[in-house]
């Protein structure tokens, strides 16, 4: 650990504990016949499990970190100060509702505008990812079963694998043609979606992940896992961090090319990219 880097080990352990509690609730409610589902003002889904998880995590934080602020998807912000926990109780609620196992609880810790620790827990997939500033990123079922993560070394956009959530979002955001052109440029594109796209970037299985419309709670925990695995995480415009609009996560080598394509629609010559020497 660098000499000037704060130690967030206890915060990561706490986030794992909270993720354990969240997993217990979500797995109990996943595919439950009496699951209660309603629509929020933006017409997105919210379930009784979303609310229950966020309430439990907030109670834990009120005891363990009473001075820290909390920002979540479903409930009002609480507290003030430089340390702020950012919670998405179920990222991928639509999947959760339909019985698709691709959903996760996202728990991030920010100090000021920077994410310094995070845990992404997907119990229906049997996977968990976590990271803290200066300590790297890991995956496994628990802290005791940790495997270090490293992004890919793919340096040419023509050789890249791209993951996204939906084409509709890009069209609605006004970047539809830019995104389609990017899809045509890369080697392979798949809609793995939501948190999973970013975790696949951190694992090196995917080289680029991007979405045009995201909130802070969708991005905070994913940001630190990607960056500590050696990648880059920015807005669509290339501004570092989980502040939007949207998100672009890459292995770092491809980042500037992807942002340029999405933002300006500058078409990339795949062959020229393949021949470009690495810096």
UniProtKB/TrEMBL annotation:
It comes from Enemella evansiae. One of its GO terms (biological process) is inositol metabolic process. This is Histidinol-phosphatase. Mg(2+) 1 binds at residues 73, 88, 91, 218. The keyword Metal-binding applies. Pathway: Amino-acid biosynthesis; L-histidine biosynthesis; L-histidine from 5-phospho-alpha-D-ribose 1-diphosphate: step 8/9. It is an enzyme of class 3 (hydrolase). Coiled coil: none annotated. It catalyses: L-histidinol phosphate + H2O = L-histidinol + phosphate.
């Amino acid at each position: 650990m660098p000499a000037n880097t704060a130690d967030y080990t206890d915060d990561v352990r706490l986030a794992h504990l909270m993720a354990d509690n969240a997993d217990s609730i979500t797995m109990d409610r996943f595919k439950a016949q009496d699951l209660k589902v309603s629509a929020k003002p933006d017409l997105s889904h919210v379930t009784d499990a979303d609310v229950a998880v966020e309430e439990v995590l907030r109670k834990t934080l009120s005891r363990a970190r009473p001075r820290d602020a909390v920002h979540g998807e479903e409930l009002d912000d609480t507290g003030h100060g430089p340390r702020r926990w950012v919670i998405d109780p179920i990222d991928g609620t639509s999947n959760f509702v339909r019985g698709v196992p691709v959903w996760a609880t996202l728990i991030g810790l920010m100090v000021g505008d920077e994410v310094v620790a995070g845990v992404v827990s997907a119990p229906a997939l049997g996977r968990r990812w976590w990271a803290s500033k200066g300590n790297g990123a890991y995956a496994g079922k628990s802290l005791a079963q940790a495997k270090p993560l490293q992004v890919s070394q793919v340096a040419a956009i023509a050789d890249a694998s791209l993951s996204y959530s939906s084409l509709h979002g890009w069209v609605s955001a006004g970047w539809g043609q830019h995104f389609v052109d990017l899809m045509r440029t890369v080697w392979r594109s798949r809609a793995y979606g939501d948190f999973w796209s970013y975790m696949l970037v951190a694992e090196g299985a995917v080289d680029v992940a991007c979405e045009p419309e995201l909130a802070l709670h969708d991005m905070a925990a994913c940001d630190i896992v990607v960056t500590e695995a050696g990648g880059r995480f920015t807005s669509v415009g290339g501004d570092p961090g989980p502040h939007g609009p949207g998100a672009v996560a890459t292995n770092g080598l491809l980042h500037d090319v992807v942002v340029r394509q999405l933002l300006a629609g500058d078409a990339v010559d795949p062959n020229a990219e393949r021949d470009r020497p690495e810096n």
